[in-house]
C-alpha cells in the first residue's frame, strides 16, 4: 500500500503542477472553456486518487475547489481574480497536504478549514457576480458541448419589406446563435422586366449549430408576419458543422433545393453522425468526455528514471562497442564486413540520439513557477509586470532543468525587485510602456543552449554614475582592485557575480543581501555552464546563461599527454599551435607568442608530474578562459571525438579537473578534462608560487 | 582488546567460500560474494593527481572501473607486471554505497572453502596491518596463514598500514590526502 501511496504522491505532485500551470493559463484567457475543462479534469483526477489512497483532506478540499470550477464550466460563475488567487493558494496548500505526516496533520487541518471558509466566501460572492457577467458569457457558450444542429427554412412573404423588415437582419440574428450554413434560394426571382422592387422573392435554407434550444431560433422570427413561412426542425443532436468535409456534404444537399429538403438531409445525417463518433480527434464532444476518461489524453508513459538511466548506459556501451567494430573493420579488410559495420554505425547513432533525447524535456516545464513568481512578486511590490517566454520548446536534460530552476528564479527575482522601475510614472516618463516586461528566452546555438532573462527596467550604469562607483568602491574595499585601476565594462559586470556585491539599494526580504549572483554563478558552473550580465542604463538588463545540451555527451578534442588520452571540451578550444619543445622549455615568464599575442602556458606534462621524455615537437592548444587564452601543451592531437561521459567514481572524488572519462574505440579509457577547473586550480597554485 | 573481541564476533559456524590471492610473499583472501570477475591485466589509464595506490582506470564492458594497486595499498613496493598479474573486480560497500572496484594483485591462487569456526582472530599487536581490516587468519597447511580481509573497510580508509610499520618500511610511503 505504501508503494502505491508513493506512486500516487508522485502523480499527485505532477497533477498539482499541471493545475498550477492551467490556472495561470486561465488567468490570461479567462473565457476559454477548454482550459476550465482542463482545470476541472485535473482536479477531478486528483480528487479521485486522493480518495482512493486515503488522503481525505485532499479529497474534501479538491471537492470544494471542483465545485467552483464546475460552476464556471456551466457558465454560472465567471472567472474572477478572487477565484484565481484562491486556486493558486490552494495549489500551495495541496502541496503541503500531499506531504502530510501525523505531526503536521493538526496544523494542516486548521489551514484546511481556513481555506474552506475562504472558498465558501468566494462561492457565495461568485454567485452574486455571475449575474453581471451573464451577458458576456453568452458568447463563450456557443462552443460548449451540447451543440445541436437545426434546419431552418425561411420564406418571407412577398410583402415582407412593406413593414420595414429586412430578412437579412433575421439571418444575421441566427448567425449569432452559432455556426451556420446558409443557402439562399433564388429560383422564385422572376425575369427582370417582371420584378417588383418592393416584393421579396428570396427564401433561405440554413443549418445552424447551436447549444441554444429550438425556442431561441423561433424567437428570432417572432416578429415576422403570419404570411411568411418559417420551418425549424432539429436535424441532429450533434454539431454537424464542425467538420469541413461534413459541411461540404450538407451544402451539396442544401444546394439541390428539393421540396422535401429536411427529409433529404435526414438521410445524410446518420452517416455523418457515425463518422463523427468514429473520429477520435473530434473536438466538441470529446472535451466533455475528457473529464471522465483519462486514457485519451495519455500521450506519454511514466517510466522510472532508473530504467531510463539503464537504457542510456546500455546505449553508451553500444556506442563504445560500435566504435570498436568500426576500428576493427578499418584495420581488417574483410569483404562484406564494411557495409554491415557502416549500417550499425548509422543505427547506433540514431539510437543514441533518440535515447538521449528521452532525457531531454522542453524548458517550458519550469516556466510555471517563474510565471507564478512574477505574478506574486509583482503584486507584492505593486509593480505591473508581464512575463513573456520565447523558445520554450528548447529542450534540455531533465537534470539540468531541475538544477537550473533555482538560479533562474533568483535572477528573475532580481529583475523584478531591482530591474523594473518602482512606478509606472517613472516608466512612462522614460517613454517606455507602463507595463514592465520580463522575457524568458531560450535558444540553441551549436551544442549549447542559451537561456536569457531580459528585463526592460532601469538597467545598470556601467560607464559611470552611482552604480559603477558603488561597485568600484566595493571592489577596492575588498582589495580586488587598487584605487587607481580602471575597470572595463565587462569586468564591472563580472564583479557582480562575486560574493558581497549587490545592486540593491535596499535590502528587501527578497534579494539584495549580497548572497545572490555568486551562488547563481556557482550553481550554473556546476552544470558546466556560464553566466553573463549585460545591461544598458535605462533600457534594462540581460542575464545570459550558456549551458551544454546534455551532461552526458561532450564534443571534445582527443589529445595525448604522456600516453594518456585526454578529451578537452571543444567548446573551450580556440586554436592549436605547434612549438619545439625547447622553445616551450625556454619560454620567458611562462609566456609564448601565439599569433602575436602573449599567451601563458600550462604545461600539462609538468602539471601532472609526468616523467617520460616529451616529444621534440609539442602542440599548444589555446583555451578560452573568460576573456583570456591559456595554452595547454600536449604531445599529440588525435582529432575530434564525441565523448560519452562516464563518472570516474568515488575513488577519484578529489579529482576536480577530471569530471569523468570516456571509452575510446580501441577499448582504452580517455580522461575528460574540465579545462576551466584546471585553469582555476592552476591559477591558484601559480599565485602560491608567486608569493 | 576491543578489536579482538570484534574479530571473534564475526566468526560463525557457516562454511564460507573465499578467493585467495597473493601479494608478494603473503596470501590474502576475500569472500567470493564480493567478487564479480577476474580479469587479465589490461592497459590502465593513469589518472594524474590521484593517490599513489590508485593505478588508474580501465574499461570494463563500457564502464570506467577504478583500479587499486593492492601492493601499494598494503605498503609494499610496486613491481613490474608479470603474466600472473591480474585484476579482481569487486563490489565493495564504501560507507553505505555500492562501488565497483578493481584490485591489482600479483596472482590469484584458489577458491577455498573455509570453516569459519577454524578462523583465528588476528592478533591486534605486532601486526603490519590495522586489525580492523583483517577479519581473521586461516591456517593452511603447517605454517602457512591466509589473511581473510574485511574488504569493505579497506577501501573506506586511506590508511591500511599502521603508521609505525610504515616508517619502518622505508619503501612506499602513502601520502595523507
Question: Could you explain the architecture of this structure?
Answer:
The complex is a heterodimer of chains A (691) and B (177). Chain A folds into five domains: 2-141, Up-down Bundle (Four Helix Bundle (Hemerythrin (Met), subunit A)), CATH 1.20.120.160; 148-275, Alpha-Beta Plaits, CATH 3.30.70; 307-359; 362-548, Histidine kinase-like ATPase, C-terminal domain (Heat Shock Protein 90), CATH 3.30.565; 553-685, SH3 type barrels. Chain A is 47% helix and 21% strand. Chain A is built from 21 helices and 21 strands. In chain A, the strands form five sheets. A five-stranded mixed β-sheet of chain A has the order 6-8-9-11-10. In chain A, helix 1 (2-28) crosses helix 13 (367-381), helix 3 (56-73) packs antiparallel against helix 4 and helix 11 (305-331) packs antiparallel against helix 12. The radius of gyration of chain A is 35 Å and the shape is elongated. Residues 128-144, 280-296 and 505-514 of chain A have low confidence and may be disordered. By secondary structure, chain B is mostly beta strands. The radius of gyration of chain B is 16 Å and the shape is globular. The two termini of chain B are 29 Å apart. In chain B, strands 8-1-2-10-9 form a five-stranded mixed β-sheet, with no helix packed on it. In chain B, strands 3-6-7-5-4 form a five-stranded mixed β-sheet. Residues 1-11 and 163-177 of chain B have low confidence and may be disordered. Chains A and B meet through helix 11, strand 20 and strand 21 of A and strand 4, strand 5 and strand 7 of B.
Amino acid at each position: 500500500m505504501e508503494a502505491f501511496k508513493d506512486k500516487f504522491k508522485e502523480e499527485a505532485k505532477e497533477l498539482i503542477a499541471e493545475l498550477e500551470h492551467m490556472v495561470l493559463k486561465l488567468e490570461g484567457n479567462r473565457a476559454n472553456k477548454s482550459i476550465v475543462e482542463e482545470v476541472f479534469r485535473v482536479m477531478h483526477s486528483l480528487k479521485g486518487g486522493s480518495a482512493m489512497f486515503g488522503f481525505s483532506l485532499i479529497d474534501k478540499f479538491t471537492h470544494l475547489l471542483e465545485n467552483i470550477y464546475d460552476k464556471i464550466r456551466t457558465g454560472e460563475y465567471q472567472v474572477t481574480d478572487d477565484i484565481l488567487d484562491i486556486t493558486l493558494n490552494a495549489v500551495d496548500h495541496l502541496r503541503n497536504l500531499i506531504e502530510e505526516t501525523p505531526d503536521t496533520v493538526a496544523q494542516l487541518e486548521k489551514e484546511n478549514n481556513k481555506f474552506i471558509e475562504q472558498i465558501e466566501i468566494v462561492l457565495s460572492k461568485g454567485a452574486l457576480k455571475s449575474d453581471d457577467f451573464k451577458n458576456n458569457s453568452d458568447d463563450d457558450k456557443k462552443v460548449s458541448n451540447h451543440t445541436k444542429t437545426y434546419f431552418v427554412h425561411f420564406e418571407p412573404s412577398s410583402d415582407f419589406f412593406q413593414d420595414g423588415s429586412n430578412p437579412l437582419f433575421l439571418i444575421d440574428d441566427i448567425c449569432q446563435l452559432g455556426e451556420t450554413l446558409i443557402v439562399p434560394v433564388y429560383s422564385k426571382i422572376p425575369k427582370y422586366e417582371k420584378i417588383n422592387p418592393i416584393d421579396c422573392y428570396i427564401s433561405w435554407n440554413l443549418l445552424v449549430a447551436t447549444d441554444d434550444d429550438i425556442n431561441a431560433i423561433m424567437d428570432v422570427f417572432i416578429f415576422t408576419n403570419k404570411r411568411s413561412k418559417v420551418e425549424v426542425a432539429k436535424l441532429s443532436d450533434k454539431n454537424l458543422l464542425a467538420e469541413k468535409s461534413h459541411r461540404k456534404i450538407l451544402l451539396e444537399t442544401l444546394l439541390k433545393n428539393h421540396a422535401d429538403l429536411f427529409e433529404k438531409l435526414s438521410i445524410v445525417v446518420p452517416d455523418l453522425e457515425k463518422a463523427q463518433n468514429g473520429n477520435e480527434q473530434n473536438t466538441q464532444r470529446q472535451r466533455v468526455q475528457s473529464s471522465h476518461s483519462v486514457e485519451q489524453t495519455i500521450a506519454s508513459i511514466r517510466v522510472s528514471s532508473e530504467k531510463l538511466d539503464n537504457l542510456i548506459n546500455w546505449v553508451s556501451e553500444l556506442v563504445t562497442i560500435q566504435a570498436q567494430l568500426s576500428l576493427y573493420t578499418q584495420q581488417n579488410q574483410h569483404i562484406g564486413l564494411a557495409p554491415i559495420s557502416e549500417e550499425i554505425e548509422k543505427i547506433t547513432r540514431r539510437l543514441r540520439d533518440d535515447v538521449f533525447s528521452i532525457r531531454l524535456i522542453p524548458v517550458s516545464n519550469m516556466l510555471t513557477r517563474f510565471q507564478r513568481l512574477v505574478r506574486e512578486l509583482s503584486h507584492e511590490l505593486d509593480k505591473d509586470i508581464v512575463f513573456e517566454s520565447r523558445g520554450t520548446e528548447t529542450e534540455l536534460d531533465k537534470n539540468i532543468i531541475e538544477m537550473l530552476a533555482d538560479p533562474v528564479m533568483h535572477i528573475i527575482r532580481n529583475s523584478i525587485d531591482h530591474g523594473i522601475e518602482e512606478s509606472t510614472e517613472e516608466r512612462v516618463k522614460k517613454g517606455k510602456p507602463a507595463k514592465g516586461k520580463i522575457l524568458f528566452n531560450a535558444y540553441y546555438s551549436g551544442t549549447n543552449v542559451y537561456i536569457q532573462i531580459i528585463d526592460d527596467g532601469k538597467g545598470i550604469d556601467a560607464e559611470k554614475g552611482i552604480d559603477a562607483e558603488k561597485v568600484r568602491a566595493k571592489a577596492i574595499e575588498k582589495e580586488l582592485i587598487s584605487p587607481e585601476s580602471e575597470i572595463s565594462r565587462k569586468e564591472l559586470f563580472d564583479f557582480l557575480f562575486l560574493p558581497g556585491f549587490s545592486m540593491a539599494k535596499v535590502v528587501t526580504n527578497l534579494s539584495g543581501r549580497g548572497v545572490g549572483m555568486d551562488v547563481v554563478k556557482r550553481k550554473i558552473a556546476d552544470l558546466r555552464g556560464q553566466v553573463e550580465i549585460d545591461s544598458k542604463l535605462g533600457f534594462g538588463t540581460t542575464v545570459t546563461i550558456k549551458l551544454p545540451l546534455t551532461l552526458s555527451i561532450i564534443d571534445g578534442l582527443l589529445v595525448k599527454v604522456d600516453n594518456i588520452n585526454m578529451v578537452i571540451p571543444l567548446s573551450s578550444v580556440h586554436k592549436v599551435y605547434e612549438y619545439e619543445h625547447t622553445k616551450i622549455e625556454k619560454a620567458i615568464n611562462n609566456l609564448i607568442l601565439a599569433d602575436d599575442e602573449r599567451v601563458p602556458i600550462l604545461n600539462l606534462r609538468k602539471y601532472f608530474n609526468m616523467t617520460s621524455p616529451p616529444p621534440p615537437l609539442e602542440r599548444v592548444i589555446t583555451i578560452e578562459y573568460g576573456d583570456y587564452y591559456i595554452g595547454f601543451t600536449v604531445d599529440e592531437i588525435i582529432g575530434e571525438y564525441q565523448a560519452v561521459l562516464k563518472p570516474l567514481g568515488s575513488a577519484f572524488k578529489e579529482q576536480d579537473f577530471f569530471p569523468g572519462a570516456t571509452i575510446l574505440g580501441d577499448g582504452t579509457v580517455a580522461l575528460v578534462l574540465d579545462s576551466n577547473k584546471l585553469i582555476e586550480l592552476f591559477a591558484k597554485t601559480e599565485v602560491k608560487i608567486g608569493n | 582488546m576491543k578489536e579482538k573481541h570484534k574479530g571473534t564476533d564475526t566468526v560463525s559456524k557457516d562454511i564460507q567460500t573465499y578467493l585467495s590471492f597473493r601479494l608478494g610473499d603473503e596470501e590474502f583472501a576475500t569472500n567470493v560474494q564480493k567478487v564479480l570477475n577476474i580479469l587479465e591485466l589490461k592497459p590502465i589509464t593513469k589518472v594524474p593527481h590521484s593517490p599513489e595506490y590508485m593505478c588508474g582506470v580501465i574499461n570494463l564492458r563500457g564502464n570506467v572501473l577504478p583500479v587499486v594497486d593492492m601492493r601499494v595499498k598494503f605498503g609494499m613496493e610496486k613491481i613490474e607486471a608479470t603474466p600472473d598479474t591480474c585484476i579482481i573486480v569487486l563490489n565493495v560497500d564504501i560507507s553505505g554505497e555500492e562501488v565497483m572496484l578493481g584490485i591489482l594483485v600479483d596472482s590469484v591462487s584458489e577458491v577455498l572453502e573455509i570453516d569459519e569456526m577454524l578462523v583465528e582472530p588476528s592478533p591486534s599487536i605486532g601486526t603490519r596491518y590495522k586489525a580492523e581490516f583483517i577479519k581473521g587468519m586461516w591456517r593452511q597447511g603447517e605454517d602457512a596463514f591466509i589473511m581473510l580481509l574485511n574488504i569493505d573497510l579497506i577501501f573506506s580508509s586511506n590508511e591500511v598500514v599502521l603508521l609505525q610499520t610504515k616508517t619502518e618500511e622505508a619503501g612506499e610511503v602513502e601520502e595523507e590526502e
